[in-house]
Amino acid sequence: MIFSIIRTALVSLRRDRAALALSFILPVAFFSIFAVIFGGRRDTVPKVSVILVDQDQSEASRQLVKALEGDGSLNVRTKPPAKTKGAEPPADYTAATAEAAVKAGDVSVALIVPRGFGDHPISFGPGENGSAIELLNDASDAIAPQVVAGLLQKAAMTAMPLVMAQQGMNYTGEYIGGFTPEQRKRMDAGLAQLRERQSGTGSAAQNPAASHGGGIIPVKTRSVVGENKNNPMISFYAAAIGVMFLLFTASGAAGALLDEAESGALDRVLSTRVTMTTLLAGKMLYNTMLAFIQLTVMFLWAWAVFKLDFFSHISGFVVMGLSTALAVAAFGILLASLCHTRAQLGAVSTLVILIMSSIGGSMFPRFLMPESMQKAGLFTINAWAIDGFTKVFWRDLPVSALWQQVSVLLAVAIGLFLIARRIARRWEYA
Amino acid sequence: MPLQDGPASSMTSPLDVNSVVKRFGNITAVNGVTLSLRTGECLGLLGPNGAGKSTLIRTIVGRVTPDSGQVTVFGSPAASPAARAALGWVPQELALYPRLTAKENLRAFGRYSGLSGAPLAKAIAWCLHWAALEDRSGELTRNLSGGMKRRLNMAAGLIHKPRVVLMDEPTVGVDPQSRNRIFEMIEVLRSEGTTIIYTTHYMEEAERLCDRVAIVDHGRIIALDTSEALVRNSFGSRNQVIARFDGPPAELAAWVARHAGRLTDSTAEFTIEHPTQIAVLLESASAAGLELVDLSLRRPNLESVFLNLTGRELRD
Questions:
Q1: Which residues of A touch B156 (CB under 8 A)?
Q2: Which of A211, A253, A364, B229 is the most buried (most CB within 10 A)?
Q3: Considering the entire predicted model, what is its pTM?
Q4: Which residue range(s) make up the domain with A263?
Q5: Contacts of A397 (CB under 8 A, 6+ apart)
Q6: pLDDT tens sequence across A345-373
Q7: Selected residue of B63, B97, B172 to mutate for chain A interface (largest A Cβ count, 10 A)
Q8: Domain that holds residue B38
């Protein structure tokens, strides 16, 4: 008897492809995505991009820059990327252009090594950070500044033994009363040996054996984006979670098309003056309206409860909201036209939307992901929408700065709609 | 037995179907159908399930593209805007929006048909009255009874006042009372001069409602005429004797076969030229040891015609 029950259930499952996909494909796909993002392979750990501006150009600052450039965990940029291939290389970053780049979201961290840094590169107490390195950061990325600050100290300790030794001698002379001629001679010989070793091996950071005793580089950290925000991640999550649920809503709403096909209402509608193009366009506009209202409710809630600065960003919100809503609406129409039953739509949309949302940054920020995964995220609606909303609410950028995100989302909307229209021909005539 | 009208009517005919063929894979659903409707008539398409009636209707309404042949509505090709405006389709399925009220459904289909404003309001009022749904107009469609849904389904197909109405088995699954109400609705249309095609597999409906009946089998029209003419052409002045016997099944079967009858369970059916032949049959049955339980004499009907033409029952 029990065997018969099991057998019946198994046969039913085997014939329900939607349930099979949800049972086996979705968990495996999800596991793989999380494994790639957070899992084992060392070469997939994301590098932190940092802009470095050396205003000092002293021996100490050059050694520090060289050490940071040699660090495998950092992707150090001293000049902006060339706009076109073969063009003249652009000028080095300045403090101002570096700050602008952080504000624009090109990188999360910039380091400014100020003039006079080489005179007092090491700080042992308060009041000595007049020439402190300035760390400019984007507060939405809580991890990158920590990583850079830590690596900066590591670089100081490993790459600047000569500077540190000289500084130590200076402090000794200043506070203890100087060295005897014999001591001074031995110290100079030691420093010469150290200088020789450093010039022979290049960056000491690449040679752990060259590590010397500790010291602390004075660093002043300043958030250049989001310093005045009440809650740094609210706008990110409003957009991230919003887009994910928009996708679900859009595919569910577009599923009405399947209900109508099943009940015969679609046939009847198409026997009137309504054409398939008109019908799909109507459904898409309805889905767009629904998605936009859903986003508005979400952001208004964030404003009311989490103090998101909604009303001073209203134009950016409308532009991004409508572009996103159009793209997700077209996505829903495409899924509905691809599927033959509601059950199939439910399974396919769950599978696709969860994968898109995890890669596209709706579940965790894309800057935490390996570079390859960040690039893969660009194939999702989520990533472009979240980037756009972040520009509006986090970086306070004007509407004109959204052209890239808006163009991509509109192109996606048009492309998906045209594909859906082509597939929907199956409903037009038998 | 005329299978199509003469060419004189083709120019003004509300509907002309000319040598239409439609195949789905290896199955030929419609196999060279030709027919022409006269203004104001009700033509019945009578045939068993799977005979090709619905495919023919969907071809006329432009939802199925024929492999060959043409359909014209008042001279315009099927699926053209003029043909769509002239045709009203009542599909076999309840093609309605279940979460909309009766009135909202009518409004939606009215708008899809190009109506708006006062003409739309008038059309909705007419439809609700015609379908006797005025007091339920604000009810969600999914909450209506089966018969009411059927009537609303019909009304939605007529919201734009079409000149030709195609009804695909509008009485499927309704109780006798609701069926009578539907018949009354169709009588109203007929009295207003609407041209109707009515598909059914109930010969009583075809006999009651239709001026002419086309008998459809395996995608072909095998006979087309008035009910009386179809019966007359198949049976002439002959009648049918229906007799139920008690006796050994094997002997009963052999006896029925000897008298060129047809046996279904224990009921035998014979076609006779004169009522006097009944006495001969009964004597023979008695001699064969069969005991008569029940006997009736009836005029052949459309079901008899179908049986006579195809060798099968309408509801097989």
A1: 268
A2: A253
A3: 0.74
A4: 229-428
A5: A104, A316, A391
A6: 888 898 899 999 999 998 888 877 877 88
A7: B63
A8: 7-232
